[in-house]
Specification:
The chain is mainly alpha-helical. The protein has one domain: Rhomboid-like fold. It has eight helices and two strands. It has a two-stranded antiparallel sheet with strand order 1-2. The longest helix has 22 residues. The N and C termini lie far apart (73 Å).
């Protein structure tokens, strides 16, 4: 499955061919299929956790069909970028990290001041989205520039993130402004507190 549907840069660019036993689809289609494969359960769970926290609000900003096209586009661009940069072009790339990173990039532009609940040393703390996401992308860049191979497609994360920022203006509802103010993202409702009116 990993070799048949994963993204292998040398196969994508025609430098190598897969054995007939796993040569199932045209290499260009692996730019889509690699998003649906993961190396482990924790790899899948991590991506789904980010998708659960950030994805629904970005989907609200676009609508269902445009969101699907958006996330696939981010995944394709992330995979293509990683394939061009990687120093291990014969190793398969799998995972939705690039596509999910695109959602994070879009979230940074659409809801920068939204509050995200983050566990810090097991203590739940609300953090502004722009602080959390700038730290996140900074960590990806730092990790990508470290010497040696870590087995993580850091450049797919970075390129996916930048792709999400670049594509958001073309996919979001035009009536929804970028850099939305402090209020919570659409779809989240809170009950307002009633003020106590005491006697002077």
């Amino acid at each position: 499955m990993i070799y048949g549907f994963g993204l292998i840069p040398d196969v994508l660019f025609g430098s190598s061919r897969l054995p007939e036993a796993v040569d199932w689809i045209a290499p260009v289609f692996t730019l889509v299929t690699y998003n649906f494969l993961h190396g482990s359960f924790m790899h899948l769970a991590g991506n789904m956790a980010y998708l659960w926290v950030f994805g629904d609000n970005v989907e609200d900003a676009m609508g269902h069909r445009r969101f699907l096209t958006f996330i696939l586009s981010c995944g394709i661009l992330a995979g293509l970028g990683q394939s061009l940069i990687t120093s291990e072009p014969q190793s398969p790339i799998v995972g939705a990290s690039g596509a999910v990173s695109g959602i994070l990039g879009a979230y940074l532009l659409q809801y920068p001041r939204a509050k995200i609940l983050v566990p810090i040393f097991t203590i739940p703390v609300f953090v502004r989205a722009y602080l959390l996401l700038i730290f996140w992308i900074g960590f990806q860049v730092f990790s990508a520039l470290l010497p040696g191979e870590s087995g993580v497609a850091w450049w797919a994360h970075i390129i996916g993130f930048l792709s999400g920022m670049a594509l958001l203006p073309f996919f979001r509802h035009k009536t929804l402004p970028l850099l939305s103010p402090e209020e919570l993202p659409r779809g989240i409702k809170i009950r307002k507190k009633t003020k106590y009116r005491g006697h002077n």
